[in-house]
Specification:
heterodimer; A: about 100 residues; Immunoglobulin-like; six-stranded antiparallel beta sheet; 1 helix; about 15% helix; elongated; B: about 375 residues; alpha+beta; Ubiquitin-like (UB roll); four-stranded antiparallel beta sheet; 8 helices; about 45% strand
């Protein structure tokens, strides 16, 4: 476990030294456009999908987006575009924290 | 994206089963084109899938055991597939496309631009002589040589160019400016003032101007001389625009011979059908005044009507008029004189009327200021050295 932490920190240092953005290392990036649209980059799959909640597996943990009438507008291995009435975005506690 | 999907074709599907998230993740991993995923129920999901991805999705589903139902089909391939069963319509479409394709290989419209003195009909005639008519194959139209040929066909055309825009052949021409006529030199002469006036503008075309704008001139004065000095004499030509003041008067006597009613009448009925009116009978008077009576509608359904017309004979008879009645007659007489004397090309700047009354009648005086060319050619006056 300790080895893994060390590896990530090393990766971040390299990125910082090369002036590269942190998402290049696979860190999830969430872009929120108003209350209706959200773009999640660097996800690792859909953990749970309901009209009221979308939970995505990311390197930073389980990312949950709550709202109403949530729709997965576009899907790709790196990006997920969600639209609907977004009410909250957060990480589930204790699940996959790194 | 929507337009591309509509062109490429897609289906809206309903997926029923458990573990639908696994279904989404597998679709992502396989790189399938799935979008607009909605979750209307706990074990139900709807999504749009491209036609290519739909078959891959069915293969993928074999291990998941979900139930896939097609809800809607959209796009061009779907519309075309429906045509498979409407062979005549398909044949018609193919026929129309083929006709369009064939028709697009011909010139169907001739568009001529830049015509002024040269008419469009003349250009079209020239093109027809060259074999370019609506229906000529586009391949036979050599635009570069066509422009040159049109230019060579008429001396009034300075430049011509042709361009093909689809089935339209556009021929643009630029006309040559007219060559000014060479003036024939005549006997040495000068221009003299035909009337008294104040010069507004003096334009000598040949010869030498002796006055400037603003100068007052009297009738007979030399305005532009043909004697240029050193023994050179030319025929003076030019224009001298001056303001000329006119005064016209006319006295109308109190006793006027005017047409008046003799007492004789002639009555007839005028029949009209809509806009059409029957020609009237022969009126036995040389001059008369018609008085129209009430119109009676004749036809129940037709627009037929009858009007009674009474013609009162008018004969010339001496009448004594008042000063007020005579004023317009006097003015009309003055205006008649003005029209006879003032040049037709003159520009009337202002008119002023004056009336006076004496034992003879009413006199109207019309003061007119007009601008006109007062130059008049005359023999050159030789100066005594």
């Amino acid at each position: 476990m300790g080895k893994r932490k060390r590896h990530i920190h090393l990766g971040r240092r390299i990125l910082s030294a090369l002036d590269l953005p942190e998402e290049a290392a696979g860190t999830p990036k969430i872009t929120l456009l108003g209350r209706e649209h959200a773009l999640v980059e660097n996800h690792q799959g859909v953990q749970q999908y309901r009209a009221e909640e979308v939970c995505l597996q990311t390197r930073a943990g389980l990312l949950c987006i709550t709202g109403q009438a949530l729709t997965l507008r576009e899907l790709s291995p790196e990006r997920l575009y969600i639209s609907g009435r977004i009410q909250g975005i957060g990480y589930a506690q204790g699940a996959g924290e790194r | 994206m929507d337009m591309w999907n509509s062109l490429a074709g897609y289906v809206m599907i309903k997926i029923e089963g458990v573990g639908l998230e696994r279904f989404i993740n597998r679709a992502i991993r396989e790189g399938l084109e799935v979008w607009n995923i909605a979750r209307p129920g706990r074990n139900t999901m709807t999504a749009c899938v491209s036609i290519g991805s739909f078959y891959a999705l069915r293969r993928l589903n074999r291990s998941l055991g979900c139930r896939i139902t097609i809800l809607e089909k959209h796009g061009l391939p779907i519309a075309l597939s429906r045509l498979r069963f409407r062979k005549v319509l398909l044949f018609g479409w193919i026929l129309v496309l083929a006709a369009l394709l064939i028709a697009s290989r011909y010139v169907w419209f001739l568009q001529i631009e830049g015509c002024d003195r040269v008419t469009e009909a003349e250009i079209i005639e020239t093109l027809t002589e060259m074999g370019i008519v609506p229906g000529t194959p586009r391949g036979q139209v050599k635009t570069s040589s066509l422009g040159q040929a049109v230019m060579a066909s008429d001396q009034r055309i300075a430049w011509a160019g042709a361009e093909l825009y689809g089935v339209v052949l556009q021929v643009s021409i630029q006309e040559a400016s007219e060559t000014p006529a060479i003036l024939q030199e005549g006997e040495p002469a000068s221009l003299y003032a035909a009337k008294d006036g104040v010069i507004r503008r003096i334009t000598p075309l040949s010869g030498k101007a002796l006055f400037h704008a603003g100068d007052g001139v009297l009738k007979g004065q030399e305005l532009i001389t043909g004697d240029l000095g050193n023994g050179i004499q030319v025929e003076a030509r030019g224009e001298v625009i001056a303001r000329v003041l006119y005064r016209f008067s006319y006295t109308a006597p109190y006793t006027q011979v005017l047409p008046g009613p003799s007492g004789n009448t002639f009555t007839y009925t005028e029949i009209s059908l809509g806009e059409w009116t029957a020609p009237p009978p022969e009126i036995p008077f040389a001059d008369y005044e018609a008085e129209r009576g009430k119109t009676r509608i004749l036809g129940a359904g037709l627009p037929l009507s009858a009007t009674e017309v009474v013609c009162h004979e008018l004969v010339a008879m001496p009448q004594t008029l008042t000063a007020q009645e005579l004023a317009p007659i006097a003015l009309a007489g003055a205006r008649e004189k003005m029209e006879a004397e003032v040049e037709k090309t003159a520009r009337i700047l202002s008119t002023q009327e004056e009336y006076s009354q004496d034992e003879q009648g009413v006199t109207a005086v019309l003061h007119v200021i007009a601008e006109e060319n007062i130059a008049q050619s005359g023999a050159l006056q030789t100066k005594d050295e």
